[in-house]
Design brief:
The structure is a single chain. This protein has 360 residues and is an alpha+beta fold. It has 4 domains: 1-29; 31-206, no CATH class; 218-273; 279-348, no CATH class. The chain is built from 11 helices and 9 strands. The strands form 2 sheets. Strands 3, 6, 7, 8 and 9 form a 5-stranded mixed beta sheet that branches. The chain has a 4-stranded antiparallel beta sheet with strand order 2-1-4-5. A hairpin with a 2-residue loop joins strand 4 and strand 5.
């Protein structure tokens, strides 16, 4: 009996271990092996922080929609609002899928209002295949003020050996949205052999031509002129302030007024040294602010170094996860800097109070 239970546990463990090593964990697939098509959130293009569940709109899932559930893999996914839902579309490695209808949606008044609102606000969605992100748009408005929705998803997937190296989503088949009509949704999968290496499959997302980066030259010129103006203004004020001191050291003693002679070497703006070098009125608050600033600065430098050395930006949510871990790990630095600064200010305050008491 014990041997049977041990054998069962061993088989179960090996099965789970084999599942973990395959598919998305190892990013290696065999021929005709399932490739999961995950759908992420949807929201307006001009407000990236406003996101909703993709299936909150009148979209339908494929026949295998209930076979996979993907929880949050890290805390970064939860904080970013990543909600991956299986689309239910059958996608297999190196298996061509022709244009196939997978569901139908009847447009009623509520569905019509939701889709019109989504198209008016340029709703777009994000999806993942083998952790490679792809994007698509819900629909568009024609010049005749008619609303159209894309009903066909064409997946162009490139592979090299047993790895997926590139994914592209093409939206096709525009259909006008009309109440009391049935819209059919379809998909298509096209596999292509590629010579791109698996190691460099994320290079296209780093290409500046992949995303539309617009350089605001007018804003840059405006900021540059503002900086020049402020530097000139501060320089003029500083020169006018120092001019009197320069004349004082240059001219003879009789040119100095009686008031300036009574003040000695420290007069005018130089007298602020008493305010600059005095102990802070709230040393604990100042120490907390300075130490928190150092904490955030060191965390930022550490994350930048990790992103350069280890490509932590590839897996979604990893950057935020590593940021939180580094922030927690560098907490002793925060405490050391704050405590040392508070100790120095407290020691100086005690010395000044003792010297004041001795003078009295």
């Amino acid at each position: 009996m014990f041997a049977f239970e041990s054998t069962s546990i061993l088989l179960l463990t090996s099965t789970i271990f084999q599942q973990v090593l395959s598919d998305e964990k190892s990013h290696k697939y065999e021929d005709n092996e399932e490739v999961i098509f995950w759908m992420n959130t949807i929201g307006p293009y001009h407000n990236r922080q406003e996101t909703y569940d993709y299936y909150s709109l009148p979209f339908c899932k494929g026949p295998s929609a209930k076979s996979h559930i993907r929880p949050h893999e890290n805390i970064g996914d939860a904080l970013q609002g990543v909600e991956l839902v299986f689309t239910g579309l059958d996608v297999a490695f190196k298996t061509q899928v022709p244009a196939t209808n997978y569901c139908e949606v009847e447009i009623n008044e509520k569905n019509h209002e939701q889709l019109v609102h989504a198209i008016d606000n340029h709703y777009w969605y994000q999806a993942y295949i083998d952790d490679l992100p792809i994007w698509g748009i819900v629909g568009e408005i024609h010049d005749d003020k008619k609303y159209h929705i894309w009903t066909h998803k064409k997946l162009e997937i490139s592979y090299n050996g047993e790895n997926i190296v590139d994914v592209n989503l093409v939206s096709e088949n525009k259909v006008e949205i009309k109440p009391k009509e049935v819209i059919k949704f379809s998909y298509e999968v096209e596999w292509k052999l590629s010579d791109q290496s698996y190691k460099h499959r994320f290079d296209k997302y780093l290409d500046p031509t992949f995303f539309q980066h617009r350089i605001h030259w007018f804003s840059i010129f405006n900021s540059f002129m503002m900086v020049i103006f402020l530097v000139g203004l501060v320089s003029m004020i500083l020169m006018r302030t120092l001019k009197k001191d320069y004349q004082r050291y240059k001219n003879e003693e009789e040119h100095i007024s009686d008031i300036e002679r009574d003040l000695g070497d420290e007069y005018g703006w130089k007298q602020i040294h008493g305010d600059v070098f005095r102990c802070a009125q709230y040393p604990s608050l100042l120490a907390a602010l300075v130490s928190s600033g150092w904490h955030l600065f060191l965390t930022m430098i550490t994350i930048v170094c990790l992103a350069v050395l280890y490509d932590i930006w590839i897996d979604h949510g990893e950057v935020i996860t590593y940021t939180l871990l580094c922030y927690v790990a560098l907490s002793p630095v925060n405490g050391y800097i704050g405590g040392a600064m508070f100790s120095r200010m407290s020691h100086r305050s005690m010395q000044m109070s003792d010297s004041g008491t001795a003078k009295n």
